[in-house]
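Help wanted!
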Amino acid sequence: MTGMNGVSQVGGVGHPASGPAALQEERPVWWFMGRILTYHPLPQLASGLCWILFHSWPLFPGLVAKAFFDALEGRTSDRLLGPLGATGVDLAAIVALVVALALVRAGFVYADVFAGTTAGFRLRGLLQRNLLARIFDRPGAAALPVTPGEAISTFRDDVETMWGAGWACDVVGFAIFAGGGVAILLWVDPRVTLLVFLPIVAVIVLGHVVRTRLVRLREESRAATARVTGSLGELFGAVQAIQVAGAEDRVVARLRRLGDERRDAMLRDRLLGLALDATFGNTAGLGAGLTLLVAARQIRSGEFTVGEFALFATYLMQVAEMTGFLSWIVATYQQMGVAFRRALRLLQGAPPETLVAHHPVPLAGPLPPVPSLVKRPADRLERLEVRGLTLRFPQSGGGIQDVSLVLERGSLTVVTGRIGAGKSTLLRALLGLLEPQAGHVLWNGLAVERPDHFFVPPRAAYVPQAPALLSGTLRENVLLGLTPEDPGELDARLERAVRSAVLERDLAGFPLGLDMPIGTRGVRLSGGQVQRVAAARALVREPELLVVDDLSSALDVETERRLWQRLAQRRGDLTILAVSHRPAVLQLADQVFMLTAGRASRRRPA
Amino acid sequence: MLTLGEVYLVLAYAAMLASPIETIRTQLQQYQHADAAIARIRELLGARSTLAEPPEPVALPAGPLSVEFRSVTFAYEAEPVLHDLSFVLAPGRTLGLLGHTGSGKSTCARLLFRLYDPTAGAVCLGGVDLRHVDPQALRGRIGLVTQDVQLFDATLGDNVTLFDPAVSDARLLALLETLGLGPWLDRLPGGLDVQISPGQLSAGEAQLVALARVFVKDPDLVILDEASSRLDPETQALLERALYRLLAGRTAIVIAHRLSTLERADDVLLLRQGRAVEYGPLAALAADPRSHVARLWRAGAARQELLA
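Answered by r_m:
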């Protein structure tokens, strides 16, 4: 791979900016489960084995109980455990065996803590990693197709549902128990046995009948939860705006209303789940009672021994428990379908495989190093050309229409225009932060195919209109994990960036300098300082192309003049595209474009 | 001796005990979680604001409020941001606050809103020290617009009124019309009921929403902190004409860099590194050829530009 990946020679024919989204291939839930379970096969297998043994284990206590009662009754000729009875084993030994079997069963749960928990955390990490990777892969200004609340809900709740796929092993354990149990019971008494498994058939039928309702209720409860999460996020982010407007009570009332809606949705969701559990559990219990009545009559007639009765009774209790569990699985399978669909929506058209693709997830040890920024000769910008760029927002009718412009190396180009004329949209479409409907961008005459991947440092850096700073120190905010090729060069680079962004005087006023914590999302900085920190963040990457949106809106004239003079001094190796209304910037510009209702016209040089 | 039936009974009961015991174990675990959560919530509830609430709050006088800084010194941490700052602004007048970035302009706004208390000196509204005023009542009287606008995932109407159903659509439309936002509103499909998702409005449009928001509550003191910095010059000029109409009958403090924003101000205060450099009526300062303000005024007029 060369540094020019993402770029290809322009052909003679038309060049679509983005193709239609690939047809979504539907995948069943079990397919996702398979991919999830094969991520770390060994721990998963160990964990699965634990649960398979756990669920099939009750086969043994039943047999032991039978031997126990047969021994009590004084029968020694047993059809199944003959040898045990024949040796005349004392009752104490049988009791000890029951206790031992219970302890071993508990041991499986304990063993799973080691095998299953790590595997589970890895799976959760993998799912969240894949979701996040896709979000970062999308054009930045259209990364989330849903509200942040919805996205958080998928990251937290849906992932929680998805990584519980391990219950597939429970099903296997259940099947082994059922298979073994049926075989043993059939051998003891075929007619009574058939009665035992009637409730399970009822469960499966009923589960199928309520499926649609189950899915709908789960979707509603998730959506309601997402609205509460989103509202809370907004509330915490806007405490000042709420205080300023004196709207505390109203905002809390809104949150309460959303909370009430969520409670209703959750109650309906839970109620159905619990009602199913109760129905299934009791159906199984009634079935068990019926079976016992039939069996009891046969004891009287002598066809049944007390030991065999105990065997039936033990298995029936397990069957009742497992029938309840089966109903849980039927419901969970449907709910997992909801979780996968919601996660796929977040993937926005990426193939479903993306969600469960296997990637390393480092849970322990040092984090993998961040690749350093290397500028290759091919990254040098000579000429940037925008041809016929068009992006219309269908809802508002705003956007840009057929915009073309050329930026020569070392030039300063200013785009100006009224509010809503499409200035920011132009910058974002150019940088691939939005997907244009037509047109393309050429870097040194080569068409850029994935602008969102291509226009990144060290080729391009972007300072948005309302820059986002993170909580942390100034240095962390400027570097954002940057590691240059030569680490010794870092300080010199930082110093240059700080000077170009006219931050040196502010820094001198901070006792800790660059190591000053700037508070939550930069709350301790003034509006002008936030803008200049964002500018330093872009400049420290020493980009070929610098794109700035209304950089000096919060700066006083003096600081603004100095900032643009210093930027202009770097024009030898820096090409600048700026949105601005300010005369100081317009005066420095080599060319000025005016945007009017999305169309660009060149004002200078005319 | 036990009968066979009794032995069975004991075994069956023993087996049935397993499930309630498991439930108790789960509940105990949940209890521990709840206990830890309650401890964290208590910690949050135990946090006390450093701004003491007055035991006997003094009511602010009705109508436009006078603003007074009495030898105010303020430091966020060790280094003071404001040094011994004093000025008096009469009720109903508009003050233009000037100064470099980081000179303490926004800090003045925050002190007036009592987001902080001064380290020394006093900030008074209508002659009452803010420390003696009920904070809720205080915030009900002040409208503050900052450069940082926070929008909600809700309708445009709800974003302007902040979910106040008591504000009628007619009043809201009239207000937006007065602010010169009628044409902009007409372009939006759905008008007031259009759902605004974050990122859908441009930064300039978001500022217009924030401006409209402040006048919904009819404040007696309006503080505009760089409230129109992200607008293009034409929109800004339009808005400012409307703004001064809305500011009539209220006291106002306008923090800005641009000359045009301050043309209609009554008084001007020039700050440099947290100290007052010049203060007085704009007309008088502009007429005094030796004043900083006049020099900035001349420079600005010559370059058709901005003030510092």
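OP: Thanks! One thing I noticed: Chain B touches chain A through 68 residues (CB under 8 Å).
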